[in-house]
Each structure stands twice: as structure tokens, then as C-alpha cells.
Design a protein that fits this description.
With about 80 residues, this protein is an alpha+beta fold. It is globular.
């Protein structure tokens, strides 16, 4: 098969709010980092750092779309 014009993948984003400074942010999956949690029921913790106040905000990964979660798990 020959590609005549390459397409592009849509950018998957999510809107979040910093719980400390109340900044409203649009994040992409590469902004989300994974950390090992101490709880057996939740083995991984996901977070992002706010670019305004530089504080760590933890995320409930189940609140995001399936596409967003898939991109996070691929990283």
C-alpha cells in the first residue's frame, strides 16, 4: 500500500484544575507521571505538576476517557 498523504493523530487532552492554586489546565498524557503507591489496592499513583505553583496534584485515573488512559498506560 502506498501512502499518498500521511494523516495525523488527534491530540488527546483532559481539563484539570489545580487543587492548590485553582489554575485551570489542559493536560496531555505525557504530562502525567506514574509513581508507586504504598497501598495494595492502588499499586500505582498518577500525578502532574502544576506549572503555576509547581505543586504535585494526584489524579483519579478512572475519571478520564478511555483514550486518555490508554495513552497514559502506553508511556
Amino acid at each position: 500500500m502506498k501512502i499518498l498523504k500521511a494523516g495525523s493523530f488527534p491530540t488527546i487532552t483532559a481539563n484539570v484544575s489545580c487543587r492548590f492554586c485553582k489554575a485551570e489546565l489542559e493536560i496531555v498524557p505525557s504530562d502525567v507521571h506514574k509513581n508507586k503507591a504504598d497501598f495494595p489496592a492502588y499499586p500505582d499513583a498518577y500525578y502532574y505538576r502544576c506549572p503555576c505553583c509547581y505543586r504535585t496534584n494526584y489524579l483519579n485515573i478512572n475519571n478520564f476517557s478511555e483514550d486518555f488512559r490508554y495513552e497514559i498506560f502506553k508511556l
